Amino acid sequence: MSYFRSIAAKLFDRSQVEEDMDEELRSHIEHRADDLERSGIGRREAERRARIEFGGRERYKEECREAQAGNFVETLVQDVRFSLRVLAKSPGFTVVAVLTLALAIGANAVVFGILNALIVRPLNVPRAQSLWGVFHGTDSSGFHTGYVSYPAYVDLRDRNRSFDGLAAFNISLAGLDRGKNPSRSWGMEVSGNYFDSLGVQPYLGRLFHASDEHGANSAPYVVLSYGFWHSHFQDDGGVLGRTIRLNKHPFTVIGVTPREFNGTMLFFFPEFFVPMVNQEQLDGANILNARGQAWIFLTLGHLKPGVTPAQAVADLNSIGGYLQKTYPKDQNPDGFSLARPGLYGDFLGGPARAFVTGLMLLAGLILLAACANLGSLFAARASDRSREVALRLALGSSRNRILRTLFTEAGLISLTGGALGLWGSVMLLGVLSAWHPVPKFPIHIPLNPDANVYLVALGLALVSGFLFGIVPVRQVLRTDPYEIVKSGTRSTAGRRITVRDLLLVAQIAICAVLVTSSMVAVRGLARSLGSQFGFEPRNAMVMETTLGMAGYKEDQ
């Protein structure tokens, strides 16, 4: 209890504490003067000698404050107030420092927001960490793809012992007619166990199940995505049971997916889901039982508890070996592999990771350049304030207390710049999230910032403040207060020039890398825009149509 009373006294009754310390110090000096006076020295001389022997009163008072409970909170408040006053006296320096750091941290927050959305953050489904995509065969570029035939998928689903349930989906384009103007709509043909395997529950109505399938074209049901239902049906709960037409074939609306579920591709937001057994009505040809037709986009599922990806690959390869022996003409001899499904495995995930990693490195260089710039400013600022630092040291202030003040200034600038940069990055990420890079496809980049982005921005702000705040530390530690006060010169000028020169070299090197990288990128973009097509593309228009959306089959 005495500890907390001491803290309360320091925080709420500071004047009384200061008076008590002054009284105690006066009593020590008077006792020493009394001793000297009894030895035969005059009272005035005894008091003078006692004060000389005692030394600087402020130094002892500072030591007493540091020894008392609650000193950290009090000194922190004092340092913050003092730093705010000092920064307010130099508005030009403060604004430049805050804006520099805001731009650097904002750039890093934006790039990390992209990295977080595409690489770090998993799909928004239950148990996303155990969800894996099955890839089989390679394309002309050597990347593993997920394409398999429907009969091969059924064999993998029924024969494997590693997954709780293997589901499949395929991306499909259809003409959707709600009784008004037909429109092009992108959706997914999914296996009957798709929603059950993922653990997705409906927002409205119900989702279809494996029990709804009874052969080709046996399940004329459609489940709408929440976004499509919201924008095209105006949240009408009476949509359940209504018949809509996909490529002029009737489908009954049975449910709506939850708001947060947008399929199993991070960037592709389907507008509807239909059972895969009805693929003929969407694709125009019945290839459901054609083992040689590899058209399923991706197979995915949750690994069973205790099963590793390597064990699952071995299990799938054993099934693949059996299928290769049984159907040598139709089965692809390539082995299977597992990867995260959100970016279609390594086909898109590899390039996306490389691109975002490169952006993150460039953003990190921008932040380092900003820290070097602010470090130079802080070194010059500390040198200009060398006389102030010397006077504070001569009056009894400790070097640690001065360093804490300098770090407090750096912390205030870094936190303010970080907050401003985070605000700007949140605005920019929101704009990018609403951007449709390819209008004809339902491609969205979900860049909504979450706790990861906020924590990274806070961490970058604190680390940046430490990096440029530590620059003048050696300068303060080597300050000779008596020499500076006596001569009025800056004894650390040579050291300041050396530090600033090193920081200037670092800034030039980092900026050279950034400028070179930017020029290479601009040159590549200019080459792409100036490609030779063999004809003049200016004022040329491209028109396309899909006859299948009008109900035509391939043979027609």
Strand content: 5-15%
Class by alpha and beta content: alpha+beta
SSE succession: HHHHHHEHEEHEEHEEEHEHEHHHHHHH
Helix content: 40-55%
Strand order of the largest sheet: 2-3-8-5-7-6
The global form is elongated
- The stretches of 5 or more residues where confidence is low (pLDDT under 50) are 491-496
Task: Provide a descriptive summary of the structure in words.
- This protein has a 6-stranded mixed beta barrel.
- Strand 2 (163-177) and strand 3 (183-190) form a beta hairpin.
- The protein is an alpha+beta fold.
- It has helices at 2-12, 14-38, 43-54, 57-67, 71-89, 91-120, 150-159, 194-198, 226-232, 279-283, 309-326, 345-384, 386-394, 399-433, 451-469, 473-477, 481-487, 493-529; strands at residues 131-136, 163-177, 183-190, 204-205, 221-224, 243-246, 249-256, 272-275, 298-303, 336-339.
Question: Topology of this protein?
Answer:
Layout: H1 2-12, H2 14-38, H3 43-54, H4 57-67, H5 71-89, H6 91-120, E1 131-136, H7 150-159, E2 163-177, E3 183-190, H8 194-198, E4 204-205, E5 221-224, H9 226-232, E6 243-246, E7 249-256, E8 272-275, H10 279-283, E9 298-303, H11 309-326, E10 336-339, H12 345-384, H13 386-394, H14 399-433, H15 451-469, H16 473-477, H17 481-487, H18 493-529
Helix pairs in contact: 2-3, 5-14, 6-12, 6-14, 6-15, 7-11, 12-15, 12-18, 13-17, 14-15
Features:
556 residues; alpha+beta; six-stranded mixed β-barrel; 18 helices; 10 strands; elongated
